[in-house]
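User: Can you write out an input/output pair for a complex, sequences first and structure second?

Assistant: Here is one pair. Inputs:
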Amino acid sequence: MNSVGEACTELKREYDQCFNRWFAEKFLKGESDGDPCGQLFKRYQLCVQKAIKEKDIPIEGLEFMGPSKGKTENSS
Amino acid sequence: HPWETVTTAAMQKYPNPMNPSVVGVDVLARHIDPSGKLHSHRLLSTEWGIPSIVKSLIGTCRTKTYVQEHSVVDPVKKTMELKSSNISFTNLVSVDERLVYKPHPHNPNKTILTQEAIISVKGVSLSSYLEGLMANTISSNANKGREALEWVINRLNAEIEEFAASARGTMRSSMAAAAFVEK
């Protein structure tokens, strides 16, 4: 599956693989002690944010948040 | 299928042959809230195969439509809720969907899905006919959605089988090699 930004597809795949494994093996079993995919997510996110700006996709009311535990205040 | 299987498949729903128009999926934001629920905001890009004459009128860079999806997974209560709405450049029709996956109360090997869609149509000429048409499409899509998850679950199981088979093969050949060296 591709990313909205063609350049981000590889980063997306790496992150997805990490996330899917963590989700099925840890999170659903109640072990949500931190997300090991943080670094991969950050790199992938930077790429996606750029692509969305470039393509002018109107996403409303969304704050780009990292994979952190608990609510954090962020401005987009 | 048990709730865990369905939820794992739902997170990896695309690509699948029942939804060929979905061409891109991206995670915009993800976090675990103080009560332990996982929130994900995703962007789905869809390409509807618009006829080329229409493309030349509206310009080829605008043939994609986008859907924004917010999902919440509660691993303790075992619920997964998905809310999606389309981001439409024309804003004539908007569709908001809400899906909730929960374990079957009497059978832990089954999952119950409740699905609702809210169709909003702007403009006087867009009448009940169009709304009826969309409602039909949405209910047949609900079936398609179930089939899509079945397909993903089968694919995931096949991948696990393949991995286990190659692991067994590797073990056998390294055991054979070890036995050979011993002799």
